[in-house]
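Hi W., the cobalt (II) ion complex you wanted:
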Amino acid sequence: MLGRLNHVAIAVPDIKKAAETYRQTFQMGVKVSGEVAQPDHGVTTVFIDLGNTKIELLEPLGENSPIANFLKKNPSGGIHHVCYEVDDIYAARDRMKAMGATITGTGEPRIGAHGKPVIFMHPKDFNGTLIELEQV
Ligand code: CO
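Structure:
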């Protein structure tokens, strides 16, 4: 059922600084995207293309950012979630439900930060790791 690792998301308090770390320290230049404000998702994102997968930097945006609490607990930032690819988000959702896993929010797929349908699986069922499933 699970496909490739699509990305690892890292919550950061200062996305400009974090992006600069990848551009300069890791010498990644053009592989580091510009900042994209995503008001619908309460985050600003930067993507870093590693070839085999991506790193998604997330900075809180607006009042009700879904990563605000995470950054309160982890002020210098940290790994927020991992995203695995699936062929069929509804089949994945049904399987997760049947296995007793908890889907966050309404439990219905919604369009994620990359314009594709996603669900998020609660960390309590997955060894403390928030898992995003994305249909590709
Ligand atoms: Co993500």
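Residues 7, 9, 56, 81, 83, 113, 132 surround cobalt (II) ion (CB under 6 Å).

W.
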